[in-house]
């Protein structure tokens, strides 16, 4: 059985992943590193909202940032998170009666 610290950290991770907006950002970052402006353009979210979500994801070490001059580029810190998300997507879709044959997954995770 996992220890209490492991359970607490896992619960915190799932809490952060409990946002559809954050999952959308992670799906983009799993495919390629992106700047805030690129993420804003691809998601349609406001710049302050994207920045807030990225700050939350950085705080729990899901994403990293590298800077080139004034531009900050974000990427997944560890592609294991893509596997966790893909497994969750597959789980919620597996018993749906109108499920499509192809399960939508985020890029960057290999089965």
Task: Explain the layout of strands and helices.
Layout: H1 4-16, H2 20-31, E1 34-35, H3 36-43, H4 47-59, E2 63-68, E3 71-76, H5 80-93
Antiparallel strand pairs: 1-3, 2-3
Entry keywords:
111 residues; Arc Repressor Mutant, subunit A; alpha+beta; globular; 3 strands; three-stranded antiparallel β-sheet; 54% helix
Helix share, percent: 40-55%
Number of helices: 5
CATH superfamily of the domain at 10-77: Winged helix-like DNA-binding domain superfamily/Winged helix DNA-binding domain
Q: What fold name goes in the CATH topology slot of the domain at 10-77? A: Arc Repressor Mutant, subunit A
E-strand count: 3
- Proportion in β-strands: 5-15%
Specify the oligomeric state: single chain
Mean pLDDT: 88
Strand order of the largest sheet: 1-3-2
Distance between the termini: 26 Å
Shape: globular
CATH hierarchy class name of the domain at 10-77: Mainly Alpha
Largest sheet: 3 strands, antiparallel
Describe what this molecule looks like in 3D.
By secondary structure, the chain is α+β, with helices and mostly antiparallel strands. It is built from five helices and three strands. It has a three-stranded antiparallel beta sheet. A hairpin with a 2-residue loop joins strand 2 and strand 3. The mean pLDDT is 88.
């Amino acid at each position: 059985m996992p220890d209490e610290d492991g359970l607490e950290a896992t619960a915190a991770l799932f809490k952060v992943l409990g946002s559809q907006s954050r999952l959308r950002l992670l799906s983009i970052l799993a495919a390629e590193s992106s700047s805030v402006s690129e993420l804003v353009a691809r998601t349609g979210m406001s710049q302050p909202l994207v920045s807030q979500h990225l700050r939350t994801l950085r705080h729990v070490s899901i994403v990293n940032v590298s800077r080139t001059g004034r531009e900050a580029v974000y990427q997944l810190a560890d592609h294991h998170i893509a596997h966790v998300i893909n497994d969750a997507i597959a789980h919620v879709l597996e018993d749906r009666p109108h499920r499509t044959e192809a399960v939508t997954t985020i890029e960057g995770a290999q089965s």
